[in-house]
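Treating backbone geometry as a discrete language has practical consequences that deserve illustration. In the encoding step, the backbone of a single protein was reduced to a row of integers, each denoting a local shape. The amino acid sequence and the backbone structure tokens for this protein are reproduced below.
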Amino acid sequence: MISEKCKGDTLNAKAFAPAHITGFFETHDHQNPVMKGSTGCGIVLNAGIESTVTAGEGIQKSEIMLNGKKVSGNTISTVIEIITDMPVKVQCQADIPVECGLGASGAGALSTAYALNSALSLNLTANKLNEIAHVAEVRNSSGLGDVAAQSVGGVVIRTVPGAPDSGKYDHIPGPELDVYCLTLGKLSTGSVLGNAELLGRINYTGRKAMEKLMQKPTIAEFMACSRDFCIDTGLADERIIDIIETVEAAGGMASQAMLGNTVFAISNNPEEETVQQALTEFGNVLHYKTSFTSIRII
């Protein structure tokens, strides 16, 4: 724990971290949470979570707010406990759905870590802050690989598990993509990671998906691998499969965000609106773009 004493003045800082959609993954256990994580591939988005940290006079007890409502925020609480023994107030503003497979917990952990570092003038490096966010995710079973991707941006292939500075990653190069998301409800990451039988299917299928993608590392192949992964593992229910097939009939590519009840889709032709229109039949469609940047202090 890093302790920092603050006298008199109220300290404030704000940071943003992007969302991340995992298309497929394989988990890798390890006694050291820094080395524990997942391999796989996913897309970093231009939306995410902005966290404002307040410390100093008048803050008697740590408090976490999400979009104006007080929450337990276990992963963010762990970030705070690792970094400081001071009570702080964290106000998170999310422009993405939470608990829907868009890496919200990782974005919240990262933005809080960076904002705390800035507010308390701790002078921690980016690698250390990324590691803290990753460890907080692992300890709370809220994620295994989002932080690694969110720390670099782009379409990220995570080839070695662990915190960003411990694991290894590569990228699928390409232009900015339009990413359309349709959220059908919340899904707890911990509820899936705690199911041993399901986890076995996930790891086997995720390993095969990675082998296939590395033979042809393109966006189209990533989407195909992700689609097969969500269906072959049984994570995709009939409604999700129906939506995926509808998007494909419209000429697009779609899959399920891991781990969440969210369908994400991209188009072969971004000038056409057929993919977005196909998703609109099933509900409200969220429109993002891929982001090739990462965390920033605001």
User: Anything to note?
Assistant: The chain is about 35% helix and 30% strand.
